[in-house]
UniProtKB/TrEMBL annotation:
Domain named Choloylglycine hydrolase/NAAA C-terminal: residues: 59-225
Keywords of this entry: Hydrolase
CDD domains: Ntn_AC_NAAA
Signal sequence, renumbered to the chain: none
Molecular function as annotated in GO: hydrolase activity, acting on carbon-nitrogen (but not peptide) bonds
Protein name: N-acylethanolamine acid amidase
Organism: Callorhinchus milii
Claim: Hydrolase is one of the keywords in the record: yes
Amino acid sequence: MSSLVPEWVIPIISTIGPELDEFFPYPYSAELRGVCKAIGISIGEGILLNFVYEATAFCTSIVAQDTKGNIYHGRNLDYSFGESLRKLIVELQFEANGQIIYTGTTAVGYLGLWTGQRPNKFTISGNERDKGHWWRNAIAAFWKRSSPVSWLIRDTLLEAENFEAAKWKLAKSPIIADVYYILGGVNPNEGVVITRNRDGPVDIWPLMTVIKQWYRVETNYDHWTTPPPSCDRRTPAIKALNATGQDKINLDTLFHVSRNGKPFYSFIYFIL
């Protein structure tokens, strides 16, 4: 962890432990205590492990619409420690009164979600947006009681009843770091990339099939800028989508598009 977080940050975060409920809303405070107890680490270490996980991923998210109006949402999570992480990946179902409210893919011990869906409502994926030292931003915003970006995905999956409600919750809720939220719905043109800073939306980029813009690709760079050649996953994805065509986009073809960058993981969601 010392390679990702300066040593002086650790004791600052550790001071949160005794007053965890003041900083973390329910159910996250209770979940964090349980995780830390189960794996034998301090509360401060548990917080940092969750934040480090949020700051070390390279991602590609795609939302696309076929010619019949069906929405497809695919994503990759690419980690340098992917082989180790693979053993910890779980698919979770969140239930209330015996009903599944939403599902998500995450790692054991991690409280947030980067990939999730509310059945027959919408899907969400989140991509890192690198804006300086993540730990510096996190500490500054954390004291303001802002939400970690992956917790907002969970909260949105729980609370939002439809695509529009999810879009504005993801766009406007205060968060601790910059991020890209990619959202897919159940109706034609319900697909959008939301570029976020800590306070609100920087850009909202929806599907516009009326002008033949039937897909959106987001990696870890603002879509209106040119990605660095050393980390350009956008261009191969766009070329693959254009080669596939809107009339042939489906679960299988989107999976092959998402594999174009040889990711460690691929998660595909199709909204019925």
